[in-house]
Amino acid sequence: MTAKRYHDLDALRAFAMLLGIVLHGLLSFVGWPIWPVQDANQSELYGLPLMFIHGFRMSLFFFVSGFFTMMMWQRRGTGGLLVHRFKRIVLPFFVLGFLIFPLLNNMKAFADWVGEGREERRVESLERTESEEPKYEVPDDLGGAARQGDLESIERHLAQGAEIDGKYDKDFTSLHWSAAMGKADAVNFLAEKGADLNVRDQSQSTPILVAAFLGRTECVRVLLVKGADPELRNVYKSRPLEAMSTDRETTMYVAENLLQIPIKWSEVQKGRNEIRELLGTEGERNPESNWFVRNYMIAIGEEIKFVTHHLWFLYDLVYLVLAFVLVASVLKFVAIPGLAKWLAEFPLRLLWLVPLTYWAQYSMGGGGEDGLFGPTTSVWLEPDWIKLGYYAIFFGYGAICFGHVGFHRKVGRFWPIHLFISVVVFLTALSLMEGKDLEFCYEIISLCSSLFVWLMIFGLIGVFRQFFSGESRKVRFVSDSAYWLYIAHLPLIQVVQIWVSQWPVPIVFKLVFVCLVTTALLLLSYRYLVRYTLIGTMLNGKRTKI
């Protein structure tokens, strides 16, 4: 067996991983709610390149991974393959994941801390200049009196016939307003006057939920003593406990823009921690109370799950390698002469690859944008079997294609046509997603997604075969570094995003800056801190200085 090195596919695999930096660099500019960094400038237009990259990137990676897995199995056998994959996949997942996961789990807190400092400086600046914006005018009714915590005015309005559970400004009752403003005496007074402790506003939130959301500890304490129910949920399925997990940006927006209540984030955080103790959740469901949970797990509703972040692909790759070994072992005894060659070299391969991919693509989506175009994103420790099956198609076909001359000579010959058609297919799917009847169009969108991904894969194989088939020290260096860059990039890129998030410059300049700074710093770190160390050996094997 020849020891030929496939420089083009090495570079292509690196390209797929480096695109991850661009993809994650885009996320702070599109308003993706679970991303810890939200830039001051955002536009839905940047969701288009994000969707385009997502539609093929990891499928391409798994295709190339399957190709090299077959190559290694043929050269080293089952034992050699498993040992190698343990060193290159399992060890990095645990060793580097142990270090990186806590950084990612706490990045939101860091972003909030930085934002709090910026907010304090902004407030100080505003206090030095006279604001021309009109101040909130408190209505002269029971709701306004409750907002002010004015017990005499509350009693006066009640004596004049005001409804104690009536709806006032912002659709809040008097008890909602007192709880929201932290007026514990007014909350106690209204409760003694017979106010409904579990009254709902237009979003079905109770006064105790509003108080918990804003960190009003004393109000929550009074409401609990008076008998308020902390288990009632609003229309967003949140109890007070879940409401306290709302991030800084959303909390500030609701308080200052919708309710026109001035708040300080550090005080809200402090109050929320105290309220968790009042609700008896400290050490039970509060992630902050347990070091391992805080650093390696995330609360999703009432569940707390281990999260693998961007290293999910290593976790999935372990399953695919084990499945490969199992299938390869079985096929030793069930030989089908010529089938692999036909599958790899059949010129109309799209006629069977697209329908097979369509089945998996169609089975993943329909539950929102995730999985609508391209695969779903599942980062939990529990395997997503449909997503695994989807990537197994690409991994398996990559393995089949290894060693077949017809594949290497012919696939991707017409790469300009492949790439052009893939853009047309993408635009077609995009127009369908903008339509009103998304459920009706879902089958066509799934078909477009399945065709798009294979056109991109075969087109990029042709591009890299034409331009990167020869050996190049620079390309080899980037290819070697790509694994380190992808594993280590996420905490760094989020820190850079936090740094630039308030810069008053166009998004495109910030995006380029974020990606270039992140890539440059990681390339330098690989060259001088990683390549010839134990970490470099774990990722790529031992390298010797020339």
Provide structural commentary.
- The protein is mainly α.
- It folds into 3 domains: 128 residues, no CATH class; 206 residues, no CATH class; 185 residues, Alpha Horseshoe (Serine Threonine Protein Phosphatase 5, Tetratricopeptide repeat), CATH 1.25.40.
- Helices cover 65% and strands 1% of the residues.
- It has 24 helices and 2 strands.
- The protein has a two-stranded antiparallel ribbon with strand order 1-2.
- Helix 1 runs antiparallel to helix 2.
- The longest helix has 49 residues.
- The relative contact order is 0.13.
- About 3% of the residues have low confidence.
Main traits of this protein?
546 residues; mainly alpha; Serine Threonine Protein Phosphatase 5, Tetratricopeptide repeat; two-stranded antiparallel ribbon; 2 strands; 65% helix; 1% strand
Give the helices and strands, then pairings.
Blueprint lengths: L6 H20 L20 H8 L2 H49 L1 H22 L13 H7 L2 H9 L14 H8 L2 H9 L14 H7 L3 H10 L13 H4 L4 H11 L6 H14 L12 H6 E4 L2 E4 L5 H20 L7 H7 L4 H15 L20 H17 L3 H6 L4 H19 L4 H30 L5 H28 L6 H24 L3 H7 L6
Antiparallel strand pairs: 1-2
Helix pairs in contact: 1-2, 1-3, 1-21, 1-22, 1-23, 3-15, 3-18, 3-22, 3-24, 5-6, 5-7, 7-8, 7-9, 8-10, 9-10, 15-18, 17-18, 17-21, 20-21, 22-23
